[in-house]
C-alpha cells in the first residue's frame, strides 16, 4: 500500500492533483484538490489511500490522517463507495459529522451529496461508537467554541475551496459568501450547505 506521496504539486485539476516525485507524476484523486492551491509548485506530503480492484487502481489523497481515516471508515459502510466518500469529505466538518452519527441525526447526514435516508441509517449503524475513540469530539467541540471568532475566516476559506471542487465558479461563490457572512456562520459544513442552497436558487 502507498501510505503517502511526497513531491512537488505540479497540477491542480477539478478532482485531482498531480505530484511530481523524481520525474514521475502521480495523479491523486482528492475530496477538495483546491485545498492544495497554496502548495502549487512546492514540495508537499499528501496522505494517500491506495484503492485496488481487479480492474482499477486509484490513489486517493487527503490533507491529514483524520480525513484519510474517515475515508477508510466511510467506504466500509454498505452503499458508500470511494466517490460517495469523497463527496462527503469535500464539505465535511469531521467533528460535526461524528457528532451527528453519535446523536443519530440522519437529517444532518442526508444533507451530504448522495446520502439518502437509508444510507444515513447505515452510516449510523456501522460507525456509531467506532469513531469517538479516534477523534476527541468533546474536546474539539470545546476548542471550537473557545476559538470560534478566530476560526470564522478559515471556515469561509475552506468552504470556498470545497465549492470550487464541486464545480462552482469564483463569480458564483462570491455572489453568496457575503450573504452568509451576514448570518455569522462559523462551521465550515454549515456554510457549504447554506451556500449550496443559495446557489441552487440562483
From TrEMBL:
InterPro entries from the UniProt entry: DNA_helicase_Holl-junc_RuvA_I (IPR013849), Hlx-hairpin-Hlx_DNA-bd_motif (IPR003583), NA-bd_OB-fold (IPR012340), RuvA (IPR000085), RuvA_2-like (IPR010994), RuvA_C (IPR011114), RuvA_C_sf (IPR036267)
Domain-related comment: Has three domains with a flexible linker between the domains II and III and assumes an 'L' shape. Domain III is highly mobile and contacts RuvB.
GO MF annotation list: DNA helicase activity; hydrolase activity
Gene: ruvA
Organism: Oceanobacillus longus
Compartments reported by the entry: Cytoplasm
Stated name of the protein: Holliday junction branch migration complex subunit RuvA
One Pfam family cited in the UniProt record for this chain: RuvA_N
Classification of source organism: Bacteria, Bacillati, Bacillota, Bacilli, Bacillales
Family (UniProt): Belongs to the RuvA family.
Domain Helix-hairpin-helix DNA-binding motif class stretches: 72-91, 107-126
Keyword list, A-Z: Cytoplasm, DNA damage, DNA recombination, DNA repair, DNA-binding, Hydrolase
Segment forming the signal sequence: none
Predominant location: cytoplasm
Biological function: The RuvA-RuvB-RuvC complex processes Holliday junction (HJ) DNA during genetic recombination and DNA repair, while the RuvA-RuvB complex plays an important role in the rescue of blocked DNA replication forks via replication fork reversal (RFR). RuvA specifically binds to HJ cruciform DNA, conferring on it an open structure. The RuvB hexamer acts as an ATP-dependent pump, pulling dsDNA into and through the RuvAB complex. HJ branch migration allows RuvC to scan DNA until it finds its consensus sequence, where it cleaves and resolves the cruciform DNA.
Quaternary organization: Homotetramer. Forms an RuvA(8)-RuvB(12)-Holliday junction (HJ) complex. HJ DNA is sandwiched between 2 RuvA tetramers; dsDNA enters through RuvA and exits via RuvB. An RuvB hexamer assembles on each DNA strand where it exits the tetramer. Each RuvB hexamer is contacted by two RuvA subunits (via domain III) on 2 adjacent RuvB subunits; this complex drives branch migration. In the full resolvosome a probable DNA-RuvA(4)-RuvB(12)-RuvC(2) complex forms which resolves the HJ.
Region named Domain III: 155-202
